[in-house]
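Annual report, structural modelling task.

Input specification for the aspartic acid complex:
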Amino acid sequence: MSGINKQKIVDSVPQKGFFGHPKGLFTLFFTEFWERFSYYGMKAILVYYMYYSVSKGGLGIDQTTALAIVSIYGSLVYMAGIIGGWLADRVFGTSKAVFYGGILIMLGHIALAIPGSVSMFFVSMILIVIGTGLLKPNVSSVVGEMYAETDDRRDAGFSIYYMGINLGAFLSPLIVGSKLIMNTSFHIGFGIAAVGMFFGLIMFMTTKKKNLGLAGTIVKNPLSPSEKKKFSIIISLAVIVVGIILAILIPAGKFTFATLISLVGFLGIIIPTLYFIVMYRSPKTTAVERSRVLAYIPLFIAAVMFWAIQEQGSTILANYADKRTQLDFAGMSISPAWFQSLNPLFIITLAPVFAWLWVKLGKRQPTIPQKFSLGLLFSGLSFIVILLPAYLGGTNSLVNPLWLVLSYLVCVLGELCLSPVGLSASTKLAPGAFQAQMMSLWFLANAAAQALNAQMVKFYTPETEMAYFGVIGGASIILGIILLAISPKIQGFMKGVR
Ligand code: GLU
Ligand code: ASP
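The model returned the following structure:
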């Protein structure tokens, strides 16, 4: 998009009106708040819905399979962001992508809210994957569009927006995942998630005109008529070919769940690899930018390791909360799903402390690669923490819930070193011609992580619990130490980016 267009968009957004930030931040904050409310609310009960027996209102799916499905689901949600970003850039613009995405997400939750069969569950999964792929990356990129390039409120704007994400993620498990709802019917919980997304859509539609001006309305790089024709043919052919392959393989019993896990694992690794190759080899990438792409590779690998542990907070640790934890504690009867509120709660309370700390340390603060390595050390430590109860007391008795609280807390310390820094480092290290794609690439780290998780969950059983946490936590710590050792080198490759 040309500089003139960019400025025209900025000028069309009322520049004050939400904590000293552009008024549009209000719209985006609450749209994303409600979207994350619905996503994390659903996710807090999803795994239980899958493996609880039919008599307890669940689907009665085998536990390991259920944990793998949640990981595949999470991986596909972030992978679909590439399609969402492409459609917004080339077909209908970010604002429409957010709207269509919201509708699909809401329909997905409605499909889960209607008591039905396993097939209904898969229909809902597809709707939510495509819907979130359309909404999530695009709503974040509109945040960036509202600020002029030289506006130094941009980082603070993203921090406020990040609070919106985590506020939604904090509140919904408390409501959707309450015992009252889980014991009555999971479908009511999914219904609440649908209502949440409905509120988000209403918020977006009623305030966008006034608050967002032109932001999100311009298709940045529209398809030419000949490209339109070419892509329609390619996409139709691809759909037909995949349809035929599946129609042959599924009835023949050749496309099993294990095939799906392997396929997602393969895509999780191959897609980011292709991204790196294309960016590195593009004639539009300058020599300095090429060096920065190289610097981004170890950071990306670290991010995959980090998200692999963080995302297990809603699979393996959710299972741990259900099966291994004393839920009658200090006179309370705790819902296992409530543990999902801990991560966002710690994020909300500690993010300002970290922001203060970095400012206070000024030039003495750790470099970007050093912060990533701290992220890995903390995430690794969070798994060592949760290994201790089995080490100290065996796996036959129930564990004090404070162990889980401590594990989530330690992981958040890592998240605050890595996640916000990763977002801004992605924009700073991106070659000029690949700014938007670099954002999708960042989300692909999470997609790759969850694709790996889908492969790993089968190694988790009560008997292997200590080894499982020990090996993964240990791997993260070792990777963190290696990263720390090579961080001056990486910093050199970053060519002045700090
Ligand atoms: N918890 C973050 C969110 O929902 C994860 C996104 C990421 O991978 O950066 O926005
Ligand atoms: N901290 C996560 C993200 O930033 C939310 C969660 O895992 O609940 O949004």
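Residues 12-221+253-493 form a domain with the Growth Hormone; Chain: A; fold (CATH 1.20.1250.20).
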